[in-house]
């Protein structure tokens, strides 16, 4: 039996509809079911210097001992009339400045806890969490229903495992021993070794032919996309999955974690990340306005200190971080949060770039200089419940609210997690 004949006769609990062979029809895919809101979380490890990407230095050239930028440091300001400013590594994003927003000055803590712990904090929204936010949100949106989810790594979801069907990009392709979808392969390294073999929800519209045709088309049209990229984009566009968590792997030849030789390594390594994200925007916009029902969050575990160490590198900085958000019910072209540069002096051996308090009621960063001139202290900020440092839970509270869920209903988030209502449509 030919593959297409088999697929067309496969039980409707797995596949609904007839496989599509026309590549031209993929630009405006139509489905009988109402499109559901989707979430794509992209994780970038090894610490991207926000100065080179989402939070560039906007002032006069600083003292290089306090904040190092190279001689060719070029930035783009207020792109396309938006609030977006981009550093030299993120210039490829400028064509999409009104499609995404940025959250700057995310305070990750005072101690360097390393890459893994920082990323867990960021993806979960709490320091001692058990579940990645994407799993908590999915099961909150669709309680006690099977949720379709794709990842190239594991997803922490111990509390919700029985409600999630998990797959890796390669598992979307039927195994050679069975042309159908009844025995979809799972990555054994995944934390979901006991997950069901079938990724597809019985009530969903799933057409393997459309998915595979789009993968083939993307390979032909976008040579910069790798196999995982094509699988992720095709699965989202064809409604194969609702939730994707993707970890971008670092190029072994150059590293973001540049504790030495910063100038030679970091800018190029970070540029490769934002070039990939830019390509995602390009595909999603050229294949249709898929950002309308897809929320994108690009996470980075932490930023880097502003000065060069003795090895001409930049070490970890937990005092500030930046995240890109886009699509769904989130506005584009906005910037939330800010940072301040604390110069070294007689009592301070090194400089520091740090996030500053945010007024969640006024939806703007505090005027730190004016407050200091007015002798406002840490106690002043502590006494004002609407003012606080921006933390990962505020990011996820905003995303939850954009999906129509109150942050207090997301059990993994701390109580009274405030959101950036200025980002909500």
Please give the structural blueprint.
Elements: H1 3-9, E1 38-44, E2 100-103, H2 115-124, H3 133-141, E3 147-151, E4 164-167, H4 208-221, H5 227-237, E5 243-248, H6 262-286, E6 294-300, E7 303-304, E8 316-317, E9 323-327, E10 335-336, E11 339-342, E12 352-355, E13 358-359, E14 364-365, H7 368-373, H8 378-383, E15 387-388, H9 392-402
Parallel strand pairs: 1-5, 1-6, 2-10, 3-4, 3-5
Antiparallel strand pairs: 2-9, 6-9, 7-8, 11-12, 13-14, 13-15
Helix pairs in contact: 4-5
Structure description:
The protein is α/β, with parallel strands linked by helices and 425 residues long. It has one domain. It is 23% helix and 14% strand. It has helices at 3-9, 115-124, 133-141, 208-221, 227-237, 262-286, 368-373, 378-383, 392-402, and strands at 38-44, 100-103, 147-151, 164-167, 243-248, 294-300, 303-304, 316-317, 323-327, 335-336, 339-342, 352-355, 358-359, 364-365, 387-388. Strands 4-3-5-1-6-9-2-10 form an eight-stranded mixed sheet, covered by helices on one side. Strands 14-13-15 form a three-stranded antiparallel sheet, with no helix packed on it. Strand 13 and strand 14 form a beta hairpin. Helix 4 (208-221) crosses helix 5. It is globular and about 65 Å long.
């Amino acid at each position: 039996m030919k593959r297409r004949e088999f697929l067309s006769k496969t039980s409707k609990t797995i596949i609904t509809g007839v496989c599509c062979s026309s590549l031209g029809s993929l630009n405006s895919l139509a489905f009988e079911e109402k499109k559901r809101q989707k979430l794509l979380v992209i994780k970038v490890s090894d610490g991207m210097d926000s100065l080179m990407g989402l939070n560039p230095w906007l002032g006069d050239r600083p003292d290089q001992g306090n904040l190092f930028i190279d001689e060719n440091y070029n930035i783009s300001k207020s792109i396309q009339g938006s609030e977006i400013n981009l550093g030299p590594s993120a210039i490829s994003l400028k064509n999409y400045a009104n499609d995404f927003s940025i959250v700057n000055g995310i305070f990750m803590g005072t101690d360097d806890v390393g890459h893994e712990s920082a990323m867990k904090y960021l993806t979960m929204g709490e320091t001692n969490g058990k579940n990645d936010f994407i799993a908590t949100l999915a099961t909150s949106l669709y309680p006690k229903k099977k949720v379709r989810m794709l990842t190239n790594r594991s997803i922490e979801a111990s509390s919700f495992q029985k409600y999630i069907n998990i797959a890796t990009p390669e598992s979307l392709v039927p195994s050679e021993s069975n042309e159908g979808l009844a025995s979809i392969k799972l990555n054994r390294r995944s934390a979901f070794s006991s997950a069901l073999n079938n990724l597809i929800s019985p009530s969903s519209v799933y057409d393997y032919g459309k998915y595979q045709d789009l993968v083939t088309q993307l390979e032909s049209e976008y040579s910069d996309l790798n196999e995982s990229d094509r699988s992720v984009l095709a699965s989202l566009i064809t409604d194969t999955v609702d939730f994707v968590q993707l970890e971008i792997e670092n190029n072994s030849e150059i590293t973001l974690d540049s504790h030495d030789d910063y100038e030679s390594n970091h800018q190029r390594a970070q540029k490769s990340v934002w070039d990939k994200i830019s390509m995602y925007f390009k595909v999603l916009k050229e294949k249709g306005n898929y950002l309308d029902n897809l929320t994108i969050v690009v996470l980075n575990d932490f930023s880097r200190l502003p000065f060069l160490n003795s090895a001409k590198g930049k070490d970890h900085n937990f005092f500030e971080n930046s995240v890109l958000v886009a699509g769904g019910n989130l506005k584009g072209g906005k910037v939330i949060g800010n940072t301040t540069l604390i110069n070294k002096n007689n009592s301070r051996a090194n400089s520091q770039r740090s996030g500053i308090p945010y007024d969640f009621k006024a939806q703007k960063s505090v005027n730190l200089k004016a407050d200091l001139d007015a002798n406002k202290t840490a106690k002043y900020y502590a006494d004002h419940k609407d003012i606080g440092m921006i933390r990962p839970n505020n990011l996820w509270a905003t995303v939850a609210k954009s999906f129509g869920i109150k942050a207090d209903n997301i059990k993994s988030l701390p109580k009274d997690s405030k959101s950036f209502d200025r980002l909500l449509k």
